[in-house]
Design goal:
A two-stranded antiparallel ribbon has the order 1-2. The protein has helices at about 1-30, 35-50, 65-90, 100-105, 110-115; strands at about 55-60, 120. The longest helix has 29 residues, at about 1-30. The protein has five helices and two strands. It has about 130 residues and is mainly α. It has one domain. Helix content is about 65%, strand content about 5%. The two termini are about 20 Å apart. Keywords: Membrane, Transmembrane, Transmembrane helix. InterPro entries: Inner_membrane_protein, UCP028777, YccF. It holds the Pfam family YccF. This is YccF domain-containing protein.
Length: about 130
């Protein structure tokens, strides 16, 4: 079932979202000082391609630099990405068939809001992490 949902997701919004995150990651990596945010964009792009069966967890070794990076990200990109995921999630939830895809957009909000210091893992492996929330 996860594979079927991922394939439909890929066609409806996953490919376009991943391309957007990849483009943002490339721009961030060209501007050398923003490489940490570029790497975060690449992680989010892989998550946007195939979200069902995977989730995000907080990395235990992420500390104060991650918090500072997330504060900068929140101001410049996090709020806008979150609003986009909220709008797309609400639009998908209008139909019964679109509800799983709307939930997938809502599930992407935490990683698009504060991506630095997060890791994307399978839902099966997430129980090994102490801060598993989804």
């Amino acid at each position: 079932m996860k594979t079927l949902l991922n394939l439909v997701w890929l066609i409806l919004s996953g490919l376009w979202m991943a391309l957007g995150y990849l483009l943002a990651g490339l721009v961030c990596c060209v501007l050398v000082i923003t490489i940490p945010w570029g790497l975060a964009c690449f992680r989010i792009a892989s998550y946007a391609l195939w979200p069902f069966g995977r989730t995000t967890v907080r990395r235990a070794e992420a500390g104060a630099p991650s918090a500072l990076g997330n504060a900068v990200w929140l101001v410049f990109a996090g709020i806008w990405l979150t609003l986009g995921h909220l709008a797309a999630g609400a639009a998908f939830c209008v139909t019964v068939i679109g509800i799983p895809f709307g939930i997938a957009h809502f599930k992407m909000i935490p990683v698009s809001l504060v991506p630095v210091g997060r890791e994307i893992v399978s839902t099966d492996a997430a129980s090994a992490y102490p801060h598993y929330r989804w």
